[in-house]
Design brief:
Length: 97
């Protein structure tokens, strides 16, 4: 994370008299994916959730330090389908881990 993010966390903690700021990352279709108690990273992956970073053009997994798209999957809390949109459902929810 950038120094700006760390600085913002420190300012918010002082402004609102907060003891802890929780970082959480999730998606509308998925819910909470990871959570942490530090401003240095996004935290740990939630139980029963699997993540991968892939190249959106090729679908291949990215290596360390490569930029890509976050893909997440779990057995609970994940949407089942797009209503009346089977092609969109197949495209968005049919990725392989």
């Amino acid at each position: 994370m950038t120094n700006t993010v760390v600085d913002n966390h420190q300012k918010q903690s002082k402004l609102f008299s907060l003891q802890v700021i929780i970082n959480a990352y999730g998606q509308t279709e998925m819910g909470l994916v990871c959570m942490g108690l530090t401003s240095k990273h996004l935290g740990v992956v939630m139980p029963a959730c699997r993540l991968k970073i892939e190249d959106p053009e090729t679908g291949e997994r990215c290596g360390p330090g490569e930029v890509g798209e976050i893909c997440a999957k779990n057995n609970f809390g994940m949407m089942q389908r797009y209503l009346n949109r089977p092609k969109d459902t197949k495209y968005c929810l049919n990725f392989i881990f």
